[in-house]
Amino acid sequence: MRGFLNLSVKFQILISMAALAFSAIAAVLLVTQTYSFDAIRYVSVEQAREQAYRYANSVSEQLNTPAEAVRSTASALKGMVDVGKPDREVAGGIITELLRQHPGIVGSGTVWEPNAFDGADSSNANVAGSDDDGRFVPYFYRDVSGKVAFEPLVGFETPGDGDWWLVPRDERRETIVEPYVYPVNNIDVLMTTISAPIFEGAPGSKVIGGVTVDLALETLQGIIDQISVPEGSMATLISEGGYVVAHSDSGRVGENITDIDPAFSPVLESIGNGDVFGR
Questions:
Q1: C-alpha to C-alpha distance for 223 and 247, rounded to whole angstroms
Q2: 180, containing H or E segment
Q3: pTM of whole model > 0.85?
Q4: 167 contacts 158 by C-beta, under 8 angstroms
Q5: Which of 159, 160, 121 is nearest to 137 (CA)?
Q6: Three-state DSSP class for residue 223
Q7: Are the C-beta atoms of residues 238 and 244 closer than 8 Å to each other?
Q8: DSSP, res 243
Q9: CB-side exposure of 79: number of CA atoms within 13 Å?
Q10: How many other C-beta atoms are found inside a 10 Å radius of the C-beta of residue 224?
Q11: What's the average pLDDT block by block, 10 residues per block, for the chain (279 residues)?
């Protein structure tokens, strides 16, 4: 300090200004570095968000096609009933054609309340595509050879296993169930079920039947595999219940996202509310 005081006033001012300048430079560098980090983070988040929207649209397209097929089939079967010309064989032909046009659909069926289709349950007991009481409940699928076969649906009145029918019937709305693994020709396949109700009258009226499709989800893994993510990052497609439908690490498929990382618990709430999640 004494040396500093012994300097001329001119030099004292110069040294003070230099110190102030260095301080200013340090402050500018700090602000610039902070700004650069924030800018990079913002750009990264926006790029990730843009990718998420783009690939979400691809996923929607994959699900919208079979969903439209379910709706159109339900409308066709309802039309048969409305004009008084229900035909079980023709209905089966319509569903068989649905399978032929949509290779990604594993199987499809229709279920009707007792005597709601043609009023002829009693004469169709144990007939192919009908249950022991003659209720019209055929399910069509591809056998090992690829040929379309069919058999009566079972378990559709059991809560849980039958939610694909009970939910649209009781809540009068279309339904897509949580992904599940089911053996198809002795091979475990991740799939989901999309169902549409058939109303007696206008939409929202009494439900008298429904159409359902089982959709293999392996194509969705292909969409996720296309996403380029930085090292240490992940791309994942999760269901409303938090189950992983597709993931950058395919070994994670079928797990719950909260088991992979508990920090993602808020994701489920965001999904339920239809909100965008970011962290």
A1: 10
A2: strand 180-184
A3: no
A4: no
A5: 121
A6: helix
A7: yes
A8: B
A9: 9
A10: 22
A11: 42 43 48 51 60 72 87 96 96 96 92 97 93 96 90 92 94 90 79 94 96 87 76 75 81 83 76 62
CB 110 within 8 A of CB 91: yes
DSSP 193: E
Cβ proximity of 5 and 11 under 8 Å: no
Which candidate, 213, 219, 12, 16, places its Cα nearest to that of 111? 213
Q: What are phi and psi of 211, to 5 degrees?
A: -125, 140
Q: Which two tokens stand for residue 154?
A: 């079972």
Tokens representing residue 88 in the block:
């079980």
Q: Which of 71, 88, 57, 78 is nearest to 213 (CA)?
A: 71
52-65 as b/e: b if 16+ CB within 10 A: beebeeebeebeee
Closest CA to 163 of 174, 147, 152: 174
Write out the two tokens for 55.
């690939």
Token pair recorded at residue 111:
């279920």
